[in-house]
């Protein structure tokens, strides 16, 4: 997958522009594949459901259940959907290539984040979405000092 992301970043503008809608869908599929790998690695069957019309968002929701630190990549999933929608809405737009490349960078971020979480499950605990976890730890630590 990383090699394909490199291709998106290095491909000539004309090639990207010529197949923009299909390439936008491919980036979304890459995001889905990354989340599927996470779920399979945790012995969970990836859902075929959709959230807000997108399987990627349903896969994220499924992966985040029981792991609040996984919410650190929620906005990345939404960004990938957003850039896909920009491209699909107007494939001849002047900034279509920029939107594809930005989508590729977001997909790379997902690859790196989820790959990192597979190595270190605590990755993402800094995220504001996992704040209740940190508050519980702080409260427990404070209680020990009393």
Structure description:
By secondary structure, the chain is mostly helical. It has helices spanning 2-10, 13-18, 20-41, 55-64, 74-89, 96-119, 131-144. Helix 3 runs antiparallel to helix 5 (74-89) and helix 3 packs parallel to helix 6. The radius of gyration is 18 Å and the shape is globular. 32% of the residues are buried. Mean pLDDT is 86; it is low at 123-134 and 138-146.
Sum up the structure in keywords:
single chain; 146 residues; mainly alpha; globular; disordered C terminus
Q: Quick summary of this structure?
A:
By secondary structure, the protein is mostly helical. It has 7 helices and no strands.
Distance between the termini: 51 Å
For the biggest sheet, the summary is: none
Helical element count?
7
The 3D shape can be described as: globular
Q: Helix-strand pattern, N to C?
A: HHHHHHH
Q: Helix/strand-derived class? A: mainly alpha
Low-confidence stretches: 123-134, 138-146
Strand content: under 5%
What is the count of β-strands? 0
Estimated radius of gyration: 18 Å
Helix content: 55-70%
Instruction: Quote the average pLDDT.
Output: 86
Topology:
Blueprint: H1 2-10, H2 13-18, H3 20-41, H4 55-64, H5 74-89, H6 96-119, H7 131-144
């Amino acid at each position: 997958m990383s090699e394909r992301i490199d291709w998106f970043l290095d491909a000539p503008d004309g090639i990207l522009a010529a197949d923009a809608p299909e390439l936008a869908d491919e980036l979304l599929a890459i995001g889905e594949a990354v989340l599927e790998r996470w779920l399979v690695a945790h012995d969970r069957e990836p859902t075929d459901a959709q959230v807000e019309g997108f399987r990627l968002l349903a896969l994220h929701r499924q992966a985040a259940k029981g792991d609040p630190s996984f919410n650190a990549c929620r906005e990345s999933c939404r960004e990938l959907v957003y850039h896909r929608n920009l491209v699909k809405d107007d494939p001849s737009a002047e900034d279509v290539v920029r939107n594809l490349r930005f989508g590729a960078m977001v997909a790379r971020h997902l690859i790196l984040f989820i790959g990192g979480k597979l190595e270190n499950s605590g990755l993402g605990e800094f995220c504001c979405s996992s704040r209740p976890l940190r508050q519980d730890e702080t409260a427990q630590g404070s209680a020990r000092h009393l």
